């Protein structure tokens, strides 16, 4: 187990190396640069800027310098936001995006699995139809529609919850609407996923055996069905986690949340090379680590898997 | 007892009224809080709260009002300006501001090592500025000096009668050099903050908000009517509008395009002419477009009035000239909508009914608004001239690169909002080889007039600028004017006073207060 874990962590290094190298050169292929403006920057100032950010050096030198910095977890100054380094921006935004993401994911998993169980056990009865319709809505309504609708009613009309801004301004209630919005499509997908896999497990031989042994239905469901049926859900959690942290861009914009999603999108528009790179590295780490955690949880749920 | 309660209540209500907090939706996240490092409109609004330059913007006209300088005077030839610094004015930490602080601040702005954007604005007008900025000479080349503790003198490159108006710009900011020397780049952090404006920094959450509170050390603090101002970082017009409607914001300066017909009906919606121009750049080196007759035909064959009323719908002003009108400046006449005359011109140029005219394209940066405008013009040109035009949209960075670096376009959408209140900010763009001259226009007579305007002043100077625009538009039609921008603010003026619609959309915070 420990050896497996170490091997997986070490495999992060070549993965990140490839990601850093590819993105370093790819973003520089895009037309324009960090200092392009509608009011064009005069040549004199442009030269001074390029010098300041070492962009007057050959690309290869810049790459080696950048690799060295990344190893020390130093992403350098943002080309756009002069008061902040990329590390400072990530340090202030990442916990916020993580908190929002984790809250949304927990909400999505708990409610999604619950709805999945109910609709599987009541297959083709009204609770099942309600759950399936809800899931279809959840998957098809985009966040930039759902968010403003919740804002309009809960925030503007009924004035129950704040329309925007984060905990620093409104306290904990600020997290409810954005988390609800962000979790909805994930809730819907998890509900469908768990419903389908519970139905499949219910028909399997070992459940028939459990029932034949005369076990109570609740024991059959909680102990035997769920353990097997949750495997696909757990598999989905890895990409879902990174997706929910990355995908919070829309929610961060709609609800004015100072996370790292919004600056990520802006950084691409602004050609803020260092910020793009910093965020790409952070997201890659999140993705790889989330997948690793999923694989470990797998081992506990599925007796067929062992880590050697 | 009863009377004392009444007095207490009255006192409390006065206190509550006189101590309002104000929230505005400020657009993009500020690139910096250091006024020398900033660029852009959202940053300017924060600058006006935290700092006070030598002059500040008049809330009604945007002309210069005394700020840190209590007065100024020009030499007879308008080539030297002397500012009298207000005596005894201090930074928020109590350190006095003198003429020497101004000298050091301006040197910092133009220091090539600092690579500040907009450093070319002061450097282009102060004698010796370009030599220093380009590294050809040291700071001693800059012709600015502290004559005595409270007298600051500037030698200009020529007569610059609008210099006091220009000094409102943050590129001329006076910054706390003692704090910058002490903390370096970290001087902008909340805990090290020092400034001289009506407000000081009290909170900054990146990507969310900047909060400023009243500066008790401000020289005119007794006339500052707000307790605090919160600048929310949000670029989504719908989100901003909803915040305003919910009461969470007191002022928004962008309205959602899709809701413009709803917003227009509001009594707290204020449309006013803005000193800015929306236009199409013509690449005058392209075959077909290199003929002024063709360019005039293009200008005359789309109905700007219909465009503004039916497509843009925000109260914008149809423009036949490139430079917007201002005091003392009458723009070029240009060419009104006249499809018959346009067809005739096109025929004269060798393309009767558009036959044989090369297909060209309109380039714009991806946005629903620019797309609608381009589609309208495309359709009108097809109907009125019989020519076919393609539309090409590019993402912002790519578009800028195509427009300003490779110049690989036929016609490109552009907009220009003035940095300071003078027509030269528009006319300077089109000199041969100019940084902004993306259409590669060149006319020695135009260049000569612009150069001449830099050496003279008064009505004569304005006349030179007006004559130049006649060449640019009436003779050469080198750019296609479309409309003049308007400011679209939503703020309840029954609740707030000291805020006026104005041409630069600059609203100095010291004047904004709750209405009594």
Query: What is the averaged pLDDT score of chain B?
Result: 93
Can you tell me the CATH superfamily of the largest domain in chain A?
MetI-like
CATH architecture of the largest domain in chain A: Orthogonal Bundle
Q: What's the multimeric state?
A: heterodimer
Low-confidence stretches of chain B: 5-18
CATH homologous superfamily of the largest domain in chain B - what is it? Dipeptide-binding Protein, Domain 3
Largest sheet of chain A: none
Percent range of helical residues of chain A = over 70%
CATH topology of the largest domain in chain B: Dipeptide-binding Protein, domain 3
Query: What distance lies between the first and last C-alpha atoms of chain A, to the nearest angstrom?
Result: 6 Å
The separation of the N and C termini of chain B measures 28 Å
Name the chain pair whose interface involves the most residues: A-B, 53 and 55 residues
Number of helices of chain B: 17
Query: How many structurally independent domains of chain B?
Result: 3
Which regions of chain A have little confidence, pLDDT < 50, spanning 5+ residues? Answer: none
* Helix/strand order of chain A: HHHHHHHHHHHHHH
Structure description:
The complex is a heterodimer of chains A (308) and B (516). Chain A has 14 helices and no strands. Chain A has 308 residues and is mainly α. Chain A folds into two domains: 15-71, no CATH class; 93-301, MetI-like fold (Orthogonal Bundle), CATH 1.10.3720.10. In chain A, helix 4 (86-121) packs antiparallel against helix 5, helix 5 (126-140) crosses helix 8 (176-202) and helix 8 (176-202) runs antiparallel to helix 11. Helix content of chain B is 32%, strand content 21%. Chain B contains 17 helices and 19 strands. In chain B, 50% of the residues are buried. Chains A and B meet through helix 2, helix 4, helix 6, helix 12 and helix 13 of A and helix 8, helix 14 and strand 16 of B.
């Amino acid at each position: 187990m420990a050896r497996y874990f170490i091997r997986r962590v070490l495999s992060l290094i070549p993965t990140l190396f490839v990601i850093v190298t590819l993105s370093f050169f790819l973003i520089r292929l895009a037309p324009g640069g960090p200092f392009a403006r509608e009011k064009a920057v005069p040549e004199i100032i442009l030269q001074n800027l390029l010098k300041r950010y070492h962009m007057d050096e050959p690309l290869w030198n810049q790459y080696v310098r950048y690799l060295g910095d990344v190893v020390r977890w130093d992403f350098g100054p943002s080309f756009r936001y002069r008061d902040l380094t990329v590390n400072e921006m990530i340090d202030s935004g990442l916990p916020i995006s993580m908190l929002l993401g984790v809250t949304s994911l927990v909400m999505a998993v708990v409610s999604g699995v619950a709805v999945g169980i109910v609709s599987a056990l009541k297959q083709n009865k009204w609770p099942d139809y309600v759950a399936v319709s809800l899931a279809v809505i959840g998957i098809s309504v985009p966040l930039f529609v759902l968010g403003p609708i919740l804002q309009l009613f809960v925030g503007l009309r009924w004035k129950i919850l704040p329309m925007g801004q984060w905990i620093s301004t409104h306290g904990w209630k600020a997290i409810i609407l954005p988390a609800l919005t962000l979790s909805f499509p994930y809730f819907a997908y998890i509900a469908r996923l768990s419903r389908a896999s519970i139905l499949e497990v219910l028909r399997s031989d070992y459940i028939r055996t459990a029932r034949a042994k005369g076990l109570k239905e609740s024991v059959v469901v909680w102990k035997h069905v769920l353990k097997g049926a949750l495997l696909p859900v757990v598999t989905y959690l890895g990409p879902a986690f990174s997706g929910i942290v990355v995908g919070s861009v829309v929610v961060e914009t709609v609800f004015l949340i100072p996370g790292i999603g919004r600056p990520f999108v802006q950084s691409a528009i602004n050609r803020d090379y260092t910020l793009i790179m910093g965020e790409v590295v952070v997201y890659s780490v999140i993705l790889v680590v989330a997948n690793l955690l999923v694989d470990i949880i797998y081992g506990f749920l599925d007796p067929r898997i062992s880590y050697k | 007892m009863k009377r004392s309660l009444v007095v207490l209540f009255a006192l409390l209500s006065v206190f509550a009224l006189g101590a309002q907090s104000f929230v505005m939706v400020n657009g993009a996240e500020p690139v910096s809080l250091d006024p020398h490092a900033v660029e852009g409109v959202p940053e300017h609004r924060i600058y006006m709260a935290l700092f006070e330059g030598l002059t500040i913007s008049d809330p009604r006209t945007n002309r210069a009002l005394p700020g840190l300088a209590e007065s100024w005077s020009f030499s007879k030839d308008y080539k030297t300006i002397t500012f009298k610094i207000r005596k005894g004015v201090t930074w928020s930490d109590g350190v006095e501001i003198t003429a020497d602080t101004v000298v050091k601040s301006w040197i910092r702005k133009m220091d090539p090592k600092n690579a500040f954007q907009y450093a070319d604005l002061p450097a282009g007008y102060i004698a010796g500025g370009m030599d220093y900025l380009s590294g050809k000479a040291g700071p001693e080349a800059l012709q600015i000096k502290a004559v005595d503790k409270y007298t600051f003198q500037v030698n200009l490159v020529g007569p610059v009668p609008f210099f006091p108006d220009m000094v409102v710009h943050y590129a001329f900011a006076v910054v706390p050099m003692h704090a910058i020397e002490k903390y370096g780049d970290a001087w902008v952090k909340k805990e090290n903050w020092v400034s001289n404006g009506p407000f000081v920094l009290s909170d900054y959450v990146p990507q969310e908000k900047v909060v400023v509170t009243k500066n008790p050390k401000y020289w005119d603090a007794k006339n500052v009517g707000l307790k605090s101002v919160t600048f929310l970082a949000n670029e989504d017009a719908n989100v901003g509008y909803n915040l305003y409607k919910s009461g969470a914001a007191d002022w928004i300066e962008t309205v959602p395009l899709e809701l413009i017909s709803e917003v227009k009906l509001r009594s707290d919606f204020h449309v006013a002419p803005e000193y800015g121009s929306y236009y199409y750049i013509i690449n005058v080196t392209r075959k077909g477009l290199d003929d002024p007759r063709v360019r005039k035909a293009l200008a005359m064959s789309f109905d700007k009035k219909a465009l503004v009323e039916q497509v843009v719908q925000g109260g914008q002003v149809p423009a036949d000239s490139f430079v917007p009108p201002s005091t003392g400046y009458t723009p070029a006449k240009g060419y009104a909508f006249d499809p018959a005359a346009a067809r005739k011109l096109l025929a004269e140029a060798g393309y009767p009914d558009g036959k044989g005219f090369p297909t060209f394209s309109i380039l714009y940066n991806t946005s629903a608004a620019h797309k609608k405008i381009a589609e309208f013009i495309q359709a009108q040109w097809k109907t009125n001239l019989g020519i076919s035009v393609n539309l090409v949209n590019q993402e912002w960075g790519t578009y800028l690169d195509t427009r300003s670096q490779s110049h690989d376009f036929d016609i490109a959408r552009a907009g220009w909002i003035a940095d300071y209140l003078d027509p030269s900010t528009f006319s300077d763009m089109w000199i041969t080889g100019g940084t902004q001259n993306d259409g590669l226009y060149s006319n020695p007579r135009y260049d000569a007039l612009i150069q001449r305007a830099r050496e003279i002043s008064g009505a004569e100077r304005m006349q030179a600028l007006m004559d130049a625009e006649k060449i640019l538009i009436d003779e050469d039609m080198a750019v296609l004017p479309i409309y003049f921008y308007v400011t679209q603010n939503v703020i309840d003026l029954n609740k707030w006073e000291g805020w006026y619609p104005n041409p630069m959309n600059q609203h100095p915070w010291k004047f904004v207060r709750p209405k009594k």
